Amino acid sequence: MSTIKTKISPDFIQKAARILKTLGHPNRIKIVEYLEDGEKPVSQIQRKLDLIQPIVSQHLKIMLDRGIVKYRQEGTRYYYSLANDFILKILSCMSDAQEMISKGEWTLENFINSN
Amino acid sequence: MSTIKTKISPDFIQKAARILKTLGHPNRIKIVEYLEDGEKPVSQIQRKLDLIQPIVSQHLKIMLDRGIVKYRQEGTRYYYSLANDFILKILSCMSDAQEMISKGEWTLENFINSN
DNA sequence: AGATTATATAGTATTATATCTATATTCTGC
DNA sequence: GCAGAATATAGATATAATACTATATAATCT
């Protein structure tokens, strides 16, 4: 019950929404998590997540455009990495949520009204 | 450069994505922020955010279904509030991001490849 | 130069979201 | 019971996101 007092400035709200929306996809979360311990070439991400190559490239492009990841090219390999460690804070926040939910302190889905 | 070490369990990733995606809309962020200091009836949210009523109700419904908000009915009024203060942590995380960006420590958009 | 590898990009079909308008529901006061 | 207020819900439509297939690019190796 701590008083958190958020204040996101009105013109930042659009950007904040964009960041959250971008992270709001399972594969992109997985990619970010996988990049946590350093840069990885596309092929390695692909194998790790068991996805076809264009899917990986497309998700990476989305995250590139939105400043979530960056890359470094070396020959024919593109090494992707997190543009900013900050992104991990959001994920670590989510792993806190996971804990709350597993402890039953938060019931995520409203099953009465579930879509 | 702190080592954050996220670990979100594979079966929680879907849920995490859903939460983030749900918050990934400007109006929903605004609603959550507005609910920060306590429950509010729909009409008040509507006036505050300058939106038409069905839009507000629909966003509230989405967040209700996903366990972000809850409500309490009193007569013809529906008082909505945050289902869990935890959501605010995510927003406070975003206000940190805002600060980083304003300080130039993070360049969000990749303007070369912007879509 | 030709073949191969790694990756990006284009095009497309499918599905999900968002917004709007219109209408239904539910409660209250008369 | 009727009128009005507050809110929900339905339906239509527009837009965006996703995933897939196919193809292009670009570097490397022979």
Question: Could you give a quick summary of the protein structure above?
Answer:
Chain A is an alpha+beta fold. Chain A has five helices and three strands.
Notes on the protein architecture:
The structure is a homodimer of 115-residue chains. Chain A is an alpha+beta fold. Chain A is built from five helices and three strands; from the N terminus they run ααβααββα. Chain A has helices at 10-23, 26-35, 42-49, 53-65, 86-102; strands at residues 40-41, 69-74, 77-82. Chain A has a three-stranded antiparallel sheet. Chain A is globular and about 50 Å long. Chain A starts with 9 loop residues before the first helix and ends in a 13-residue tail after the last helix. The model of chain A is unreliable at 111-115 (pLDDT under 50). Chains A and B meet through helix 1, helix 2, helix 4 and helix 5 of A and helix 1, helix 2, helix 4 and helix 5 of B. Chain B binds a DNA duplex (30 and 30 nucleotides) through residues 25, 27, 41-43, 52-62, 73, 75-78.
